[in-house]
Design goal:
With 250 residues, this protein is of the alpha/beta class. Helix content is 47%, strand content 13%.
Length: 250
Protein backbone atom coordinates (compact mmCIF):
# COMPACT_ATOMS: atom_id res chain seq x y z
CA UNK A 1 0.00 0.00 0.00
CA UNK A 2 1.48 3.34 -1.00
CA UNK A 3 1.89 6.07 1.61
CA UNK A 4 -0.61 8.48 0.04
CA UNK A 5 -3.40 5.91 -0.02
CA UNK A 6 -2.60 4.79 3.53
CA UNK A 7 -2.88 8.40 4.72
CA UNK A 8 -6.25 8.87 3.00
CA UNK A 9 -7.53 5.68 4.61
CA UNK A 10 -6.41 6.85 8.03
CA UNK A 11 -7.76 10.38 7.81
CA UNK A 12 -10.73 10.40 5.42
CA UNK A 13 -12.46 7.02 5.83
CA UNK A 14 -14.86 6.18 8.65
CA UNK A 15 -15.95 2.56 9.17
CA UNK A 16 -19.42 1.85 10.54
CA UNK A 17 -19.90 -1.55 12.18
CA UNK A 18 -23.45 -2.44 13.24
CA UNK A 19 -23.13 -5.09 15.96
CA UNK A 20 -25.50 -7.11 18.07
CA UNK A 21 -23.99 -9.58 20.53
CA UNK A 22 -20.61 -9.65 18.79
CA UNK A 23 -18.27 -9.22 21.78
CA UNK A 24 -16.06 -12.18 20.87
CA UNK A 25 -15.76 -11.23 17.20
CA UNK A 26 -15.11 -7.55 17.89
CA UNK A 27 -12.30 -8.36 20.33
CA UNK A 28 -10.36 -9.80 17.37
CA UNK A 29 -11.73 -7.67 14.55
CA UNK A 30 -11.33 -4.13 15.88
CA UNK A 31 -7.57 -4.27 16.64
CA UNK A 32 -6.98 -5.63 13.14
CA UNK A 33 -8.92 -2.76 11.55
CA UNK A 34 -7.08 -0.20 13.65
CA UNK A 35 -3.74 -1.71 12.68
CA UNK A 36 -4.40 -2.14 8.96
CA UNK A 37 -6.95 0.52 7.99
CA UNK A 38 -7.99 3.36 10.29
CA UNK A 39 -8.64 4.53 13.84
CA UNK A 40 -11.86 6.17 12.69
CA UNK A 41 -14.39 3.53 13.70
CA UNK A 42 -17.97 3.62 14.90
CA UNK A 43 -19.51 0.53 16.48
CA UNK A 44 -23.28 0.72 16.74
CA UNK A 45 -24.44 -1.51 19.58
CA UNK A 46 -27.83 -2.64 18.29
CA UNK A 47 -29.49 -3.81 21.48
CA UNK A 48 -26.79 -6.26 22.56
CA UNK A 49 -27.21 -8.35 25.70
CA UNK A 50 -23.50 -9.14 25.93
CA UNK A 51 -20.39 -6.95 26.35
CA UNK A 52 -20.31 -5.62 22.78
CA UNK A 53 -20.19 -1.97 23.92
CA UNK A 54 -17.64 -2.66 26.65
CA UNK A 55 -15.26 -4.46 24.30
CA UNK A 56 -15.38 -1.66 21.72
CA UNK A 57 -15.05 1.10 24.33
CA UNK A 58 -12.06 -0.54 25.99
CA UNK A 59 -10.36 -0.68 22.60
CA UNK A 60 -10.86 3.08 22.19
CA UNK A 61 -13.58 2.83 19.55
CA UNK A 62 -16.52 5.23 19.38
CA UNK A 63 -19.71 3.44 20.45
CA UNK A 64 -23.26 4.48 19.65
CA UNK A 65 -26.20 2.67 21.23
CA UNK A 66 -29.29 2.02 19.14
CA UNK A 67 -31.78 -0.16 20.99
CA UNK A 68 -34.28 -0.37 18.15
CA UNK A 69 -33.36 -3.72 16.62
CA UNK A 70 -32.60 -3.63 12.92
CA UNK A 71 -29.57 -3.32 10.67
CA UNK A 72 -31.00 -0.18 9.10
CA UNK A 73 -31.71 1.40 12.49
CA UNK A 74 -28.06 0.85 13.42
CA UNK A 75 -26.77 2.37 10.17
CA UNK A 76 -29.13 5.34 10.44
CA UNK A 77 -27.93 6.01 13.99
CA UNK A 78 -24.34 6.18 12.77
CA UNK A 79 -25.28 8.43 9.87
CA UNK A 80 -27.12 10.78 12.22
CA UNK A 81 -24.06 10.98 14.45
CA UNK A 82 -21.71 11.68 11.53
CA UNK A 83 -24.05 14.37 10.20
CA UNK A 84 -23.78 16.14 13.57
CA UNK A 85 -19.99 16.44 13.33
CA UNK A 86 -18.47 19.77 12.38
CA UNK A 87 -15.92 17.98 10.22
CA UNK A 88 -17.43 14.70 8.96
CA UNK A 89 -15.29 12.15 7.11
CA UNK A 90 -15.21 12.25 3.32
CA UNK A 91 -15.89 8.53 2.90
CA UNK A 92 -17.95 5.93 4.73
CA UNK A 93 -17.46 2.17 4.87
CA UNK A 94 -20.13 -0.25 6.09
CA UNK A 95 -18.63 -3.46 7.49
CA UNK A 96 -20.07 -6.36 9.47
CA UNK A 97 -18.70 -7.30 12.87
CA UNK A 98 -19.11 -11.08 12.72
CA UNK A 99 -15.66 -12.00 11.29
CA UNK A 100 -17.16 -13.41 8.10
CA UNK A 101 -15.65 -10.61 6.02
CA UNK A 102 -11.92 -10.02 5.51
CA UNK A 103 -10.48 -6.75 6.86
CA UNK A 104 -8.05 -6.61 3.93
CA UNK A 105 -11.02 -6.33 1.59
CA UNK A 106 -11.92 -2.97 3.13
CA UNK A 107 -8.73 -1.63 1.59
CA UNK A 108 -9.44 -3.22 -1.79
CA UNK A 109 -13.02 -1.97 -1.95
CA UNK A 110 -12.09 1.51 -0.73
CA UNK A 111 -9.30 2.07 -3.24
CA UNK A 112 -11.43 2.72 -6.37
CA UNK A 113 -13.39 5.37 -4.46
CA UNK A 114 -10.66 7.06 -2.44
CA UNK A 115 -8.17 7.28 -5.30
CA UNK A 116 -10.58 7.89 -8.13
CA UNK A 117 -9.94 10.71 -10.55
CA UNK A 118 -13.06 9.82 -12.51
CA UNK A 119 -15.66 10.71 -9.93
CA UNK A 120 -16.27 7.22 -8.57
CA UNK A 121 -18.52 7.59 -5.58
CA UNK A 122 -19.28 4.02 -4.64
CA UNK A 123 -17.85 0.51 -4.57
CA UNK A 124 -18.98 -2.67 -2.87
CA UNK A 125 -17.62 -6.11 -2.23
CA UNK A 126 -19.25 -9.02 -4.04
CA UNK A 127 -19.37 -12.37 -2.26
CA UNK A 128 -20.87 -14.03 -5.32
CA UNK A 129 -17.95 -13.73 -7.72
CA UNK A 130 -15.55 -16.08 -5.93
CA UNK A 131 -16.55 -19.74 -5.59
CA UNK A 132 -15.20 -20.02 -2.04
CA UNK A 133 -17.06 -16.90 -0.89
CA UNK A 134 -20.31 -17.85 -2.59
CA UNK A 135 -20.23 -21.31 -1.01
CA UNK A 136 -19.79 -19.73 2.43
CA UNK A 137 -23.26 -18.23 2.05
CA UNK A 138 -26.25 -20.34 2.97
CA UNK A 139 -28.28 -21.74 0.04
CA UNK A 140 -31.09 -19.29 0.87
CA UNK A 141 -28.69 -16.35 0.79
CA UNK A 142 -27.23 -17.48 -2.53
CA UNK A 143 -30.66 -17.73 -4.14
CA UNK A 144 -31.84 -14.38 -2.74
CA UNK A 145 -28.68 -12.52 -3.76
CA UNK A 146 -28.74 -14.01 -7.24
CA UNK A 147 -32.42 -13.17 -7.77
CA UNK A 148 -32.36 -9.59 -6.49
CA UNK A 149 -29.03 -8.80 -8.14
CA UNK A 150 -30.29 -9.98 -11.52
CA UNK A 151 -33.47 -7.98 -11.04
CA UNK A 152 -31.49 -4.79 -10.47
CA UNK A 153 -29.14 -5.58 -13.35
CA UNK A 154 -31.96 -6.12 -15.83
CA UNK A 155 -33.95 -3.06 -14.86
CA UNK A 156 -31.13 -0.55 -14.49
CA UNK A 157 -28.64 -1.83 -17.04
CA UNK A 158 -25.64 -2.17 -14.73
CA UNK A 159 -24.10 -5.46 -13.68
CA UNK A 160 -24.89 -6.24 -10.04
CA UNK A 161 -23.95 -9.60 -8.54
CA UNK A 162 -24.48 -9.16 -4.80
CA UNK A 163 -26.28 -7.10 -2.17
CA UNK A 164 -23.57 -7.65 0.41
CA UNK A 165 -22.72 -5.55 3.46
CA UNK A 166 -19.19 -4.33 2.58
CA UNK A 167 -19.70 -0.95 0.92
CA UNK A 168 -17.64 2.23 0.56
CA UNK A 169 -19.38 5.42 -0.45
CA UNK A 170 -18.62 9.14 -0.53
CA UNK A 171 -20.26 10.89 2.43
CA UNK A 172 -21.81 13.54 0.19
CA UNK A 173 -23.43 10.81 -1.92
CA UNK A 174 -24.65 8.87 1.11
CA UNK A 175 -26.35 11.96 2.53
CA UNK A 176 -28.13 12.59 -0.76
CA UNK A 177 -29.55 9.05 -0.87
CA UNK A 178 -31.90 9.97 1.99
CA UNK A 179 -31.77 6.46 3.45
CA UNK A 180 -34.83 5.35 5.38
CA UNK A 181 -34.85 1.54 5.73
CA UNK A 182 -34.74 0.35 9.32
CA UNK A 183 -34.06 -3.34 8.76
CA UNK A 184 -33.63 -5.93 6.04
CA UNK A 185 -34.25 -3.51 3.18
CA UNK A 186 -31.15 -1.39 3.81
CA UNK A 187 -28.83 -2.82 1.16
CA UNK A 188 -31.61 -3.04 -1.42
CA UNK A 189 -32.57 0.59 -0.80
CA UNK A 190 -29.00 1.81 -1.18
CA UNK A 191 -28.30 -0.18 -4.34
CA UNK A 192 -31.61 0.79 -5.92
CA UNK A 193 -31.14 4.48 -5.23
CA UNK A 194 -27.59 4.50 -6.57
CA UNK A 195 -28.79 2.86 -9.78
CA UNK A 196 -31.77 5.21 -10.12
CA UNK A 197 -29.36 8.14 -9.75
CA UNK A 198 -27.17 6.56 -12.46
CA UNK A 199 -24.19 6.32 -10.13
CA UNK A 200 -21.75 3.70 -11.29
CA UNK A 201 -22.10 0.40 -9.46
CA UNK A 202 -18.49 -0.71 -8.91
CA UNK A 203 -17.83 -4.17 -7.49
CA UNK A 204 -14.73 -5.96 -6.20
CA UNK A 205 -14.74 -9.74 -5.54
CA UNK A 206 -14.18 -10.26 -1.81
CA UNK A 207 -13.44 -13.13 0.54
CA UNK A 208 -16.22 -14.38 2.75
CA UNK A 209 -16.10 -17.07 5.43
CA UNK A 210 -18.66 -19.29 7.07
CA UNK A 211 -19.85 -17.90 10.37
CA UNK A 212 -17.54 -19.09 13.15
CA UNK A 213 -19.80 -18.39 16.10
CA UNK A 214 -23.54 -18.16 16.55
CA UNK A 215 -26.25 -18.22 13.89
CA UNK A 216 -26.86 -15.71 11.15
CA UNK A 217 -29.61 -13.28 12.11
CA UNK A 218 -31.20 -13.66 8.66
CA UNK A 219 -30.19 -16.76 6.71
CA UNK A 220 -29.94 -18.91 9.84
CA UNK A 221 -33.72 -18.95 10.16
CA UNK A 222 -36.03 -19.78 7.26
CA UNK A 223 -38.91 -17.67 8.61
CA UNK A 224 -36.63 -14.67 9.00
CA UNK A 225 -35.14 -15.26 5.56
CA UNK A 226 -38.60 -15.25 3.96
CA UNK A 227 -39.51 -12.08 5.85
CA UNK A 228 -36.26 -10.45 4.69
CA UNK A 229 -37.00 -11.34 1.06
CA UNK A 230 -40.48 -9.84 1.38
CA UNK A 231 -39.12 -6.62 2.89
CA UNK A 232 -36.49 -6.36 0.16
CA UNK A 233 -39.17 -6.76 -2.50
CA UNK A 234 -41.33 -4.03 -0.99
CA UNK A 235 -38.28 -1.79 -0.57
CA UNK A 236 -37.35 -2.28 -4.22
CA UNK A 237 -40.87 -1.45 -5.42
CA UNK A 238 -41.29 1.61 -3.19
CA UNK A 239 -37.87 2.99 -4.07
CA UNK A 240 -38.27 2.39 -7.80
CA UNK A 241 -41.71 3.99 -8.05
CA UNK A 242 -41.58 6.77 -5.47
CA UNK A 243 -37.98 7.93 -4.93
CA UNK A 244 -36.38 10.48 -7.20
CA UNK A 245 -32.76 11.57 -6.77
CA UNK A 246 -32.15 15.12 -5.51
CA UNK A 247 -30.49 17.57 -7.89
CA UNK A 248 -27.05 17.15 -6.32
CA UNK A 249 -26.96 13.52 -7.48
CA UNK A 250 -27.86 14.30 -11.09
Amino acid sequence: MDQRFAEILRTELCIIIPARNEEQSLAKLLPEIVKKVTLNLIVVDNGSSDATSKVATELGVKVIRENRIGYGFACLAAISYIASLSNPPNYICFFDGDEQSDVNDIIRVAKPVLLSNKGKQYCQGSRMRLDSSRKALSPMAQVANSFFSRLLSIIWGQKVTDLGPLRVIAWSTLKSLEMRSSGYGWTMEMSSKLLIANIRHNEIPVNYNKRRKGISKISGNITTAIRAAFVMTITFLCTSFFWRPPSELL
